[in-house]
Amino acid sequence: MKILFTAALKLELNPVKNFLFNNFSQDLINNFDFHIIGIGIKNTIKNITTYLDNKNYDFVFNIGSAGGLNPDFNIGDILYPVKFINKERNITNNIKLEIDEKYNVTPGILFTSKVPILDKIHKETIIEKYKADAVDMESFYIADLCKNHNIPFVSLKVISDLAESKSIVKFRQQLEMVIDNLYKPVYKTIKQLVVNK
């Protein structure tokens, strides 16, 4: 079973990739592709389209970070998006995962923005209008392309900041502290989707 793993940044992808290499058999690892897609719509659409057009994948798995919008989320918590939203449309995730509470994985709504959310008014507008729990800049477009290619898509996002004015300054440092929170949820998800099939 061939799986494409994507993330916007090397800092998001490589630590998880190294963990998977140390915990799965070589036979399974040989069916994993890992690609950095870059930040934002243009990079995402260009790179994901290239990957999906050139190889046959059974799953696409997006990992990385998101800004927390829901006050119940703390930095380091994990969002399992069950719905991906942008300003025009939404896509419901039809893959049902068993959520393990001990890893602080919570199902919710992920809003994909064209720009970073750095002010209170913008943040409150997204919460009110879209009922979003977190925000990123790529996932909706990956979900949309996967839907068009009839490829199942799943995503897990660690909350790295709270979508506020200092988020850009704090982002890298905070992400380095919390990215390892993704290791076990990603591992368990792969086992659900692949190993136990």
Q: Portion of residues in helices?
A: 25-40%
CATH superfamily, called what? Nucleoside phosphorylase domain
- Global Rg: 16 Å
Overall pLDDT level: 89
Q: Return the CATH architecture.
A: 3-Layer(aba) Sandwich
Please mark out the parts with pLDDT under 50 across 5 or more consecutive residues, or reply none. Answer: none
DSSP helical segment count: 7
Any idea what the shape is?
globular
| Count of β-strands | 8
Looking across the biggest beta sheet, what order are the strands in? Answer: 3-7-6-4-8
CATH topology: Rossmann fold
Number of domains: 1
What is the subunit arrangement here? single chain
The largest sheet, given as strand count, sense and whether it forms a barrel, is:
5 strands, mixed, barrel
Summarize the structure.
It contains seven helices and eight strands. It has helices at 10-23, 26-29, 41-54, 120-130, 139-148, 167-178, 183-195, and strands at 3-7, 32-36, 59-68, 78-85, 90-92, 105-112, 134-136, 153-161.
Supply the key terms:
single chain; 197 residues; alpha/beta; Rossmann fold; five-stranded mixed barrel; 7 helices; 40% helix; globular
Per-chain topology:
Layout: E1 3-7, H1 10-23, H2 26-29, E2 32-36, H3 41-54, E3 59-68, E4 78-85, E5 90-92, E6 105-112, H4 120-130, E7 134-136, H5 139-148, E8 153-161, H6 167-178, H7 183-195
Parallel strand pairs: 1-2, 1-3, 3-8, 4-6, 6-7
Antiparallel strand pairs: 3-7, 4-5, 4-8
